[in-house]
Each structure stands twice: as structure tokens, then as C-alpha cells.
Write a structure and sequence with these properties.
By secondary structure, the protein is α/β, with parallel strands linked by helices. The protein has two domains: 171 residues, NAD(P)-binding Rossmann-like Domain (Rossmann fold, 3-Layer(aba) Sandwich), CATH 3.40.50; 103 residues, 6-phosphogluconate dehydrogenase C-terminal like domain (6-phosphogluconate dehydrogenase C-terminal fold, Orthogonal Bundle), CATH 1.10.3660. Helix content is 51%, strand content 13%. The protein contains eleven helices and eight strands. It has an eight-stranded mixed beta sheet with strand order 3-2-1-4-5-6-7-8, with helices on both faces. α7 packs across α10. The N and C termini lie far apart (44 Å). The model has no long low-confidence stretch (mean pLDDT 92).
């Protein structure tokens, strides 16, 4: 029955890890997979990560579908898949920007089909099915962004899959989600990219072989997929721009404190930052 089948569209780090996490689990649905990378699809089929490799049409026949592709591509896919799914089916995603996706996917869903937005807070700087891990979501958080148009049953069906993969599930309004993640995820990536770009464009050419652990640790996320982060920045453009303006204001304050040799001000600035970070 289609109701016991899970379709995963996109078998990269997130989609592949979800399939691996469900593999062999008692009560887990049969997993069908679809991916534009034929080799990754063959790998997933060969090791039993998915029960069947199929097209978009095959994925749309599943009772629950998770779209795990870059956010810019996801809108078009969600429109196409949502229109083809049967009444009673549930569609969800794994994108890190939610407002536009939720709006577009819910509007495009066919009669009796529900879309519930999702965002697993997990990942690495690596991508593709070879980077997938069955433990990627263990102990991690998945944010669902349902709206008033969703039924409790549809939300619970999506929650069940992520909990089975080892995650804890929270719910959040789509707009609140995009505001929050502009600061705690999108801004840190922007700053990391900007810091490495600043060093890379120095006339003095600082040799990175001498970089301290702090530089390497802080800028690790600048090794993330540039294509993916270009899409995220543009999809959440308004919130990202607000976050960057707020960051520039705080960076300007730090610059002013250093220029004025304000030891007390620097101590208070750093102390506030340390207390906030220690509270995480």
C-alpha cells in the first residue's frame, strides 16, 4: 500500500542519511528513492538503503514523500510532486528556509494532499550520498513548520519518521523559523565565508599554514557547499540582510572600542558574548 511507503526525493547527505537511519528499523516504511545522480541511486539500491529506485512519478505514488534537494530547486519539485500525489498523502521537505516553500507547496498540493514543512538541524560540510550516515540525526533537532491548514494526523506522520531516525521534533511558525535561522545559521555561514574571503584577498597573502586552531574551527563551515549556501542566502534574503545589518552594527561597536582603547568597554563586550555562548 502507498500509505506504508516513504518516498525520498534527493539522496544526498540529508535524504541518504534519512534512508540509512530507517534501514532495518522495526515499523519503518518501505523506502523508495529518486535522485538525478544515477551512481548515487545505484549505490543506495545496491546496499539496500532503498527498496526501489524510481522516477518522480514513482515517488509521487508514495503515501509520504520527503523532498531533500537544495531550497531553490525544491519549490518547483514540490509543486510538481504535490499535484500528482493521491488524496490522503503527505508531502514534506528538509529545506533550511521555510516561508516561501510552505506558501508555495501548500498552494500547489492536490486535493486531499497536505504539505508540512520540515528542517532537520543536522549536517556536515560534506555532501552527496557517500557522505550520508545512519546516525546523522541521532539526538539532533528537526523543526516542523505546520500551519492552520494542517491536520494533526499529517503532522504526526512526519514527526514519526524523524523520531524513528533518532531526532527530537519541535514545531515553529514558518516566519519565526526564517527569522531565527537567519541569525543562528545563515549569518554564521555568511561571516565564515566573509572571513576566509578577507584573508584570501589580502595583499600581504597571509600563509594559512600558520593559522591557529581558532581560525580553522571558526571557518570550518566555509567548506560547505557554495551552491547550496548561495541558494539559502537568496531564498531568505530579507532576513539575512537584516541579520547582516545587525552584525555590522555590533562589529562597528567593537571597532570603536578598539580605536578608543576602551579596555572597560572591550571587557564588557567580550564578557557579554562569553556569557551568552557559555549558556548554549
Amino acid at each position: 500500500m502507498s500509505g506504508t511507503r516513504l518516498g525520498i526525493l534527493g539522496l544526498g547527505l540529508i535524504g541518504g542519511s534519512l534512508a540509512l537511519a530507517l534501514k532495518g528499523k522495526r515499523g519503518a516504511p518501505e523506502v523508495w528513492g529518486c535522485d538525478k545522480n544515477r551512481e548515487h541511486l545505484r549505490m543506495a539500491l545496491r546496499d539496500g538503503t532503498i527498496a526501489r529506485a524510481c522516477t518522480e512519478a514513482g515517488i509521487a505514488s508514495c503515501g509520504l514523500v520527503v523532498v531533500c534537494v537544495p531550497v531553490v530547486r525544491s519549490v518547483g519539485l514540490l509543486r510538481r510532486i504535490g499535484k500528482r500525489m493521491a488524496p490522503g498523502a503527505v508531502l514534506t521537505d528538509a529545506g533550511s528556509v521555510k516561508s516561501e516553500i510552505v506558501r508555495e507547496a501548500q498552494a500547489a498540493a492536490g486535493p486531499g494532499v497536505e504539505f508540512v514543512g520540515g528542517h532537520p538541524i543536522a549536517g556536515t560540510e560534506n555532501s552527496g550520498f557517500p557522505a550520508a550516515s545512519p546516525s546523522l540525526f541521532k539526538g539532533k533537532t528537526v523543526i516542523l513548520t505546520p500551519t492552520g491548514g494542517n491536520t494533526g494526523e499529517a503532522i504526526r506522520r512526519v514527526e514519526r519518521i524523524w523520531k524513528m531516525a533518532g531526532a527530537r521534533v519541535l514545531r515553529m511558525d514558518p516566519g519565526v523559523h526564517d527569522h531565527v535561522f537567519a541569525y543562528v545559521s545563515h549569518l554564521p555561514h555568511a561571516v565564515a565565508y566573509a572571513l576566509v574571503h578577507s584573508v584570501a584577498t589580502l595583499d600581504s597573502k597571509v600563509p594559512l599554514g600558520y593559522s591557529a586552531g581558532g581560525f580553522r574551527d571558526f571557518t570550518r563551515i566555509a567548506s560547505s557547499n557554495p551552491e547550496m549556501w548561495k541558494d539559502i542566502m537568496l531564498q531568505n534574503r530579507g532576513e539575512v540582510l537584516r541579520a547582516l545589518r545587525h552584525y555590522r552594527k555590533n562589529l562597528a561597536l567593537l571597532e570603536s572600542l578598539v580605536r578608543r582603547k576602551d579596555a572597560g568597554g572591550l571587557l564588557a563586550y567580550f564578557g557579554k558574548a562569553k556569557r551568552t555562548r557559555d549558556g548554549l
